[in-house]
Amino acid sequence: MEHHHERSGSWGTLALLCLAQFMVILDVTVVNVALPKMSDDLRLDAGAATWVVTAYTLCFGGLLVLGGRLGDLLGRRAVFLAGLAVFTASSLAAGLAGDAAVILGARAAQGVGAAMLSPAALSIVSTLFHGRRRHQALAVWGAVGGGGAAAGVLIGGLLVSGPGWSWVFFVNVPIGIAVGLAVRLMVPPSPRQPGRVDVPGALLLTGTAALVIYGLVRAGTAGWTATSTWLSFAGAAVLGLATAAVQRGTRSPLLPTGLLRRRPVIAGNAVMLAASSLLIGGFFLTSMLLQHRFGYSALRTGVLFLPVTLATIVSAHLTGRGLQRFGARPVMLVAFAVAAAGFGLLARVEPHAQPFSAVLPGFVLAAAGLGAGFVTASTSVMTSVDHAAAGGASGLLNTGHELGAALGVALVSAIAAGDLAAAPGGPLDGFTAAYTAAAMVAAVSAVVLAAALPGGRPAVTEGPVFVH
Question: CB-based contacts of 179: which residues, under 8 Å, 6+ apart?
């Protein structure tokens, strides 16, 4: 077992782990910005271009729970460093890619590395920091989740407009090497936990998550009634039932016994799913609105996203304090109510409006509210599990993030489908409907998820907080 004889984490250690997570989150949105130029240079058809994004998402989201469990069993620092090495090497390969096969293979490998390093990093944070410092550290971690996606648009625009699309991958290489060397020096090794990897359960759970994500991706591109969409969901349902049966019959389940029966874990993952779907769906929709309907370049769009990044950082800081003072329920209620108000403002944007004054206020409000949701989710889950289960809990939480991101993009794509490729200056009925739907989901989530979270303020202790 892992005990509290570990030295308390430093803010420098947190910065390193957050930087690694920032790369992982960044790699989703930054590649979307680079995709048009990349497709031209590598002569990718529409299907191959879609798989540049999908290959990463499938491997990342599908393997997160397994990656988290490996961290528990083999040592979190060791798994983090291994994942970082895979991610860094595959980033170099992606930047050097000269054809479709190489870029797709490198993107899949990036997803594998990310699925190892991301849950390991969060579990290191939750075990190295104790008491009040843990709540502060998780607030910073939540800001990275929300701010990284917004910053990716700006960074992607700068790199594509400057040195070229390959640098959205090359930039990871020196950062990955530096973070790896520093983590070896600053993060103490974490001991292995007794147990073994549940291989059948891992394969089934990975397949379930991958099919759900693939189904959501296909729903956003081919439609919800497409054969490939519903076959993916049907396959996921079958594998999910098989996973549950296998997990009940094994002595070493992939997710520790009782984890999914804890109220903070279930509610926290529901918050993550809702916040991620609304935020990433909102980023996608607003980026399409600015670039396709208002004629903004990728770089100009990224500049407009900068205040959104700052809003999520400020929101995360305030949320960390608010959780300690008021508890999760009132914070959750206010956060999603603010997000609902932001989406409501976005639903009122007119075709000939000035984007900076018409789009930015609502977008900042929505991002600030949902950034608070990320912090609430991370704190609810990671302060309610002991250190032996931190990796599995982290993997589950990150899976909720990836599922939510895919769900959000699929839903807004379906609602706004008719307007996404329309000419500038036309009506925005599809965008208005999608923003209105987002506002309604946020408003309902504010009430339902606030009620689902445990009441009262979180205890400030040296160990995990158990709330049932």
Answer: 16, 19, 20, 84
Query: Are 373 and 407 spatial neighbours (Cβ–Cβ below 8 Å)?
Result: no
As a whole number of angstroms, the distance between CA 465 and CA 65 comes to 22
Hunting for tokens 């302060």 — which residue is that? Answer: 383
State the distance between the two ends of the chain, measured CA to CA, in whole angstroms: 23
Task: Record the tokens describing residue 48, joined without a space.
Answer: 């191959």
pLDDT tens-place string over residues 15-30:
889 899 888 888 877 8
Of the candidates 134, 254, 253, 126, the residue with the CA atom closest to the CA atom of residue 190: 126
Q: What is the per-residue pLDDT across 175-201, written as a single tens digit (0 to 9) for each? A: 999 999 999 988 888 777 766 777 787
DSSP string, 408-453: HHHHHHHHTHHHHTPPTTS--HHHHHHHHHHHHHHHHHHHHHHHHS
Query: CA-CA distance, 400 to 398, in Å (whole number)?
Result: 5
Q: What's this model's pTM, rounded to 2 decimal places?
A: 0.79
Tokens 């090495």, residue?
Answer: 85
pLDDT of residue 7: 47
How many beta carbons lie within 10 A of that of residue 48, not counting itself?
Answer: 17
Confidence of residue 388 (pLDDT cuts 50, 70, 90): low
CA angle 219, 54, 145 (to 5 degrees): 95
User: What gap in Å lies between CA 371 and CA 309, rounded to an integer?
Assistant: 9
Q: How far is CA 51 from the centre of its chain?
A: 19
Question: In this structure, are residues 343 and 362 in contact, taking their beta carbons and an 8 Å threshold?
Answer: yes
Rounded to whole angstroms, how far apart are CA atoms 170 and 179? 15
- DSSP conformation letters of 253-286: -SSPTTGGG-HHHHHHHHHHHHHHHHHHHHHHHH
